[in-house]
Q: What sequence folds into this?
């Protein structure tokens, strides 16, 4: 396959409601989409970087810059171009390995090339990655609210829609009481977990142990991403299983965290770890160590949502992921929307991602487009 050009398109999609986490409030999702234009087919990639470096050091403008300045030129000529022609998507991470970081940009480019390849070969992403389930259970991530009654209302709505697992965002001052309220209102059978997005330190260990009485599935990324050893120490104080998100940026960091006993569960986000192919490696590693994994979400459009559903259909994804219906975040999605069916999301079966942007909707949300010829 010959990669002829890559289109970089920015879109801005309003959220159905504000989404507050411990690092800020989002009202709109600004997304970079890549379209790989090859001699055989076109493929789509979605970059999950946020507009500001609050979740990770990456931010949208930095990803556009690094793609144009460093990554795309690798595949314009010489050994990089030849490797891509011979090995397709598998060449992307390998050829970009010497560039530090910017995994979300690497992941988006790999996803676009992989999608093009699979569309050309008429194979689905789920088959390519090793998926075995036609549908995946759908969890929903619930932001921080002004008051507990508001939170209970929203959670009740999601449960009525059929979501099979609730994840509450927490931060100091919004943790034990909201969790208690949800448990008392909706009962012990609700699969419930919390996500701190790095908002605590080891000094909060005793406080976090107060969550143990609520039978949570896990507590996600309580402390800073670099504090892997701290998470191992925390695991000795709290009984709730610890799940890492931000700390795990590669199979190598996953191996270290597992060895140290810093987590019992891993949230796999393909963008954070440099792509779907690395995500599969982390899945395999975790499975071999007997750790559960689940697929995280970054408020993706239908494109990223399709790819996440494909990944989550692998056998080691034994916990429900943050793969909610499109309508959880967007009134209108750029692809045909993902909908909940009995608390589950259908894994696309068509070639590649199995979904394609609807041209008129895509145009409406597009804020800029540029094409880099290779
Ligand atoms: O369902 O897509 C979703 C959102 C899940 O809460 C979610 N994601 O920290 O995991 C997270 C959080 C997030 C969203 C982080 C967007 C960064 C950006």
A:
């Amino acid at each position: 396959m010959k990669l002829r050009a890559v289109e970089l398109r920015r879109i801005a999609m309003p959220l159905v409601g504000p989404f507050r986490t411990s690092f800020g409030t989002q009202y709109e999702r600004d997304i970079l989409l890549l379209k790989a234009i090859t001699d055989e087919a076109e493929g789509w990639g979605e970059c999950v970087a946020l507009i500001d470096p609050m979740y990770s050091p990456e931010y949208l403008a930095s990803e556009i810059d690094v793609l144009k300045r460093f990554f795309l030129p690798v595949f314009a000529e010489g050994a990089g171009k030849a490797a891509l022609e011979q090995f397709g998507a598998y060449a992307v991470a390998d050829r970009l390995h010497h560039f530090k970081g910017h995994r979300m940009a690497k992941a988006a480019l790999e996803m676009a090339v992989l999608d093009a390849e699979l569309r050309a070969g008429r194979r689905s992403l789920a088959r390519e990655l090793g998926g075995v389930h036609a549908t995946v259970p759908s969890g929903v991530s619930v932001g921080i609210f002004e008051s507990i009654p508001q939170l209970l209302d929203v959670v009740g709505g999601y449960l009525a829609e059929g979501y099979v697992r609730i994840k509450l965002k927490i931060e100091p001052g919004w943790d034990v009481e909201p969790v208690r309220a949800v448990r008392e209102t909706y009962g012990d059978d609700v699969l419930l977990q919390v996500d701190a997005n790095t908002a605590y330190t080891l000094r909060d260990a005793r406080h976090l142990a107060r969550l143990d009485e609520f039978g949570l599935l896990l507590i996600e990324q309580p402390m800073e991403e670099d504090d892997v050893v701290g998470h191992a120490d925390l695991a000795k104080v709290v009984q709730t299983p610890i799940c890492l998100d931000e700390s795990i940026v590669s199979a190598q960091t996953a191996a270290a965290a597992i060895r140290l006993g810093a987590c019992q569960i891993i949230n796999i986000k393909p963008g954070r770890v440099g792509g779907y192919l690395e995500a599969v490696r982390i899945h395999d590693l975790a499975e071999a160590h007997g750790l559960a994994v689940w697929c995280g979400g970054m408020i993706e459009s239908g494109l990223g949502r399709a790819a996440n559903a494909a990944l989550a259909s692998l056998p080691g994804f034994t916990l429900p992921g943050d793969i909610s219906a499109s309508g959880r975040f967007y009134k209108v999605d750029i692809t045909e929307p993902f909908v909940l069916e009995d608390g589950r999301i259908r894994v696309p079966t068509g070639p590649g991602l199995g979904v394609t942007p609807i041209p008129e909707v895509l145009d409406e949300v597009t804020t800029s487009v540029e094409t880099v010829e290779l």
About this structure: The pocket of N-succinyl phenylglycine is lined by residues 50, 55, 141, 195, 197, 245, 296-299, 322, 324 (CB under 6 Å). The mean pLDDT is 98.
